[in-house]
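hey so u asked for the seq, here:
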Amino acid sequence: MAKCSACGKFLSPTGAATCFLCPLIFHRGCVAIPETAILSKSWACPECKKKVRKGDNTTTPVKGICGNESPSETVSQSAAGISAPDISPLEEDESEVRAMRREMAEYMSELRREMVQLRSSIAGFGERLDSIECRLDVLEQKKEINTIAQLKLEINDKDQEALLSDLDIGCLPEEKGENVYNIVTLLAAKLGVKIEERDIIFAERIGGVGISNAVSGGETAERSRRVVVRLARRNLRDELLHAARVRRNLTASDIGLASPTALSRRIYINERLTRINRYLFYKVREECRKRNWRYSWTKRGRVYARQGDGKQAFNIRSENDLIRVFEIGKV
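ran it, structure tokens below
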């Protein structure tokens, strides 16, 4: 807050007398200007008036200070040092206090408005932040789900790669005390592929036992467990698969394994699949049957399906691919 250049007390800039020649500011009472007088913009303080040469009319000190006084009388009164009626110090202090209170009230009012705007902005930012956090949570959950699904696919692919030299043989009659290695070599010879026992890393039956199938005449026979074979060379596996696909109707009786209690059913020779891929291949065959798709097959552990000749072949790696390819759930 500025101080009066005459008395040195604080004053409000509103209504003060400001010299247009110098930066000094005064109480009106200190320079004999009534409070109700209209102050000219070219008013000069007493010190600046002394410095102005006589006859220089560039300065018009006060315009219409009193209602009936002419400007020349006002100038002469100011130059003669005629002062306004005395104002007590108590009144000046009260005036300054009122001015300070008005300024403080205006300042507090402006501060309140700014605080209201700030609270509104903070509330808006809070809502936006909550929305962003919700979206981030959803994205993180989706990313986590996608990451888990991708990891499962990669693990399944790694497991399938470990089975690329394996065969899965089904509907091969099972007998007690059988030599599975010898049965596999007989089967390969019948298909026209020569292999020896040293070419077989392992051959064994897997799966549950005691499941029976109906036989003509009312008799029943235990369903044979699957035989899994791992060969020493992958090219031998590929040769056996190719030969089995050429001769599709090979049965147990063709290799001398049929018995009165065994079914002379077609022997199936396929790639060995992981549990996930085997289930997926089963679902693909079911969907192809329902929709009259002609082809479903496996190649190097991957499952494929095609609607017909000249149509696109689809690689199905997951149930999502199954839903997408066969449009399951769409009306």
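The first helix runs from residue 46 to 51. The chain is about 40% helix and 15% strand.
lmk if thats what u needed
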